[in-house]
Amino acid sequence: MATQNGKRILWLTQLALLTAITIILQMFSGYVRFGPFQIALALIPIVLGAAIHGIGAGVWLGAVFGLVVLLNGDAAPFYAFTVPGTIVTVMVKGLCAGMAAGFVYRTLEAKNKTLAALISAAAVPVVNTGVFILGCYLFFLPLLETWAPAGQRVTAYIFLGLVGGNFLFELAGIALLSGVIVRILGIWKDKRAG
Predict the structure, then answer these.
(1) Burial class, 155, CB count within 10 angstroms (exposed 0-12 / middle 13-18 / buried 19+)
(2) Per-residue pLDDT tens over the stretch 36-81
(3) Which of 37, 48, 151, 152 has the smallest C-beta neighbourhood within 10 Å, fewest atoms?
(4) Is the pTM of this model over 0.85?
(5) 81 φ, ψ (degrees, to nearest 5)
(6) Is the pLDDT of residue 194 over 60?
(7) 105-124 pLDDT, tens per residue?
């Protein structure tokens, strides 16, 4: 029984630590800029949590990520247009990104843990951005039409202006940092086995 309680305490401690890291990284993500591009470093603990503790942990950390985005002002321009649409878009993109990280990792883990971590890390920004784009079409199209430069179609603005460059930069950044993710997972797995 003590072993089971010890495992539960370790699980809760690790999840709490990853939750705190997610909050901190998202709170300060506005300060991590490379020119006009911003990388969502909070996606990294989502990948780690999903790989270490499964889909449920990925969903939890994705929800925490979404909640911080809603509360720290990152979504303010969208709130002004539609509060329900903003909440749905931001929370669903976080939840789906965490779910994707866990699902991809669990699906590929038995074949190759390194590949599972790399593809899982890549899946998070893809899903996060994909759901955001879907939310743009469902809730924010009239707003984005006013943001698009004169003569540019709103679809071109969404893909090229709003998310395109940032998505590619974020995907490249997560791909580069996925080596760190693989290393952390290796350390964690070694300690767990030992």
Answers:
(1) middle
(2) 667 778 888 999 999 989 999 999 999 999 999 999 988 999 999 9
(3) 151
(4) yes
(5) -90, -50
(6) no
(7) 999 999 998 888 889 999 99
Q: What amino acid is encoded at 166 in this protein?
A: N
Query: Cα 18 from chain centroid?
Result: 13
Task: Select from 118, 117, 129 the least CA-distant residue to 159.
Answer: 129
How far apart, in whole angstroms, are the C-alpha atoms of residue 157 and residue 142?
13
CA–CA distance, 32 with 23 (Å, rounded to integer): 15
Interval 5-45: pLDDT, tens: 888 998 899 999 999 999 999 998 766 666 666 777 888 89
Neighbours of 37 (CB within 10 A): 15
